[in-house]
Design brief:
With 349 residues, the protein is of the alpha/beta class. It has eleven helices and twelve strands. It has a twelve-stranded mixed β-sheet. Helix 1 crosses helix 9, helix 2 packs parallel to helix 3 and helix 3 crosses helix 5. The longest helix has 13 residues. Bound molecules: S-adenosylmethionine (SAM) and iron/sulfur cluster (SF4) (2 copies).
Length: 349
């Protein structure tokens, strides 16, 4: 790939970069598209994301060369993990090219992808794995067709996703996790059936509390089933015990089945926020950096990416992260005025 010349006169120091709350930058989530073949009611409701919705024109998306330049810059400042997301990232047919380039960036040790898995054919799973993708997170919000179709709102059945998981499993991914967003009244009756289905398999099921991301999903605290309530419901049928985190800053609280049937995770963003350890930045498909999932606005890197050299890009990156003080989940109840927030389908989960 083409690398830009470093034409800036000002040099930039590498090394540890921390934000105003002393949090390092470790993890970059990259959204490669705002489009999706699902219309999950909690993420891209049809009332907003209709046939007339204006998705981003192709020319506004970052090229893979530009994304790789951002990843190279982020890696200089401590990022080791890249997660590709969207929208539905597998809509981009040539994603393997981007993965290959990212896998060659010095310092990047972990590349993962979040997907609804419906486009994960055997061939696609193999080519993604061969390109250097290591881990997959597959979203699946119910194990019965009726509920799942109600969630995705495009009539896709559960088997399509299970086939994708099977294809990924055969392609030899290091880890495949299954993510279930729990929304009260929509799919919370699926908590125990999902736990039973994935109990004893190689896939770790993770429950995600329904979050107030974006401004279109009509979020309300009364729709949240808390981490404790989720654990209690599982505990009643399949005994579990809490276990240690794998590493500092791990977003999911881990639980193990007492009978040896593996583990589950619960992501407690609403009931027990984890902003203190948050080392994640997000890059939108249009090239803006968001320093929080709940940010109202991002920092547009495109002018620097398109008109200036690497030193200018590094300087901008340093400026953005060093002034960061986001901790939305710890403070959400203090906001009396609802402010606009970026959509999840735009910056990825
Ligand atoms: N389309 C891909 C998928 O669904 O896996 C990747 C993008 S999607 C925005 C990433 C993750 O965000 C998914 O696991 C999805 O369930 C989750 N998500 C979307 N809206 C959410 C919300 N309001 N609360 C919690 N999680 C949400
Ligand atoms: Fe698409 Fe993923 Fe959002 Fe569902 S959660 S609408 S699959 S981007
Ligand atoms: Fe990180 Fe923002 Fe989520 Fe807190 S609310 S954990 S700062 S993304």
């Amino acid at each position: 790939m083409a690398h830009s010349e470093n034409t800036d006169s000002e040099s930039v120091n590498d090394g540890a970069l921390v934000d105003r709350l002393h949090r390092p930058l470790r993890d970059l989530r990259v959204s490669v598209t705002d489009r999706c073949n699902f219309r999950c009611v909690y993420c891209m409701p049809k009332s907003v994301f209709s046939k007339d919705y204006k998705f981003l024109p192709r020319k506004d998306l970052l090229s893979f060369e530009e994304i790789t330049r951002v990843v190279e810059t982020a890696a200089r400042f401590g990022v080791t993990k890249i997660r590709l997301t969207g929208g539905e990232p597998l809509i981009r047919n040539d994603l393997e090219q981007l993965i290959e380039w990212i896998a060659n960036v010095d310092g990047i040790r972990d590349i993962s992808l979040t997907t609804n898995a419906t486009l994960l054919t055997k061939k696609r799973a193999e080519s993604l794995r061969a390109a250097g993708l290591q881990r997959l997170n597959v979203s699946l919000d119910a194990i019965d067709d009726e509920t799942f179709k109600r969630v995705n709102d495009v009539g896709v059945g559960v088997q399509d996703v299970l086939d994708g998981i099977e294809n990924a499993s055969l392609a030899g991914f290091e880890s495949i996790k299954v993510n279930m967003v729990v929304k009260k009244g929509l799919n919370d009756h699926s908590i125990v059936p999902m736990a039973k289905f994935f109990h004893g398999t190689n896939q770790i099921l993770r429950f995600i509390e329904f979050m107030d991301v974006g401004s279109t999903n009509a979020w309300d605290l009364s729709h949240v089933v808390t981490s404790q309530q989720i654990a209690d419901r599982i505990q009643a049928e399949l005994p579990i015990k809490p276990i240690e985190a794998n590493y500092k800053g791990e977003v999911a609280k881990r639980w193990q089945y007492v009978d040896g049937g593996g583990e589950i995770g619960i992501i407690t963003s609403v009931s027990e926020p984890f902003c203190g350890d948050c080392s994640r930045a997000r890059l939108s498909a249009t090239g803006s950096i968001y320093t929080c999932l709940f940010a109202s606005s991002g920092y547009d890197l495109r002018p620097v990416l398109r008109n200036q050299g690497d030193a200018a890009l590094q300087k901008e990156f340093r400026r953005i992260w060093s002034q960061r003080e986001d901790r939305y989940s710890e403070t959400r109840t203090q906001f009396s005025v609802i402010r606009p927030k970026v959509e999840m389908s735009f910056i990825g989960g």
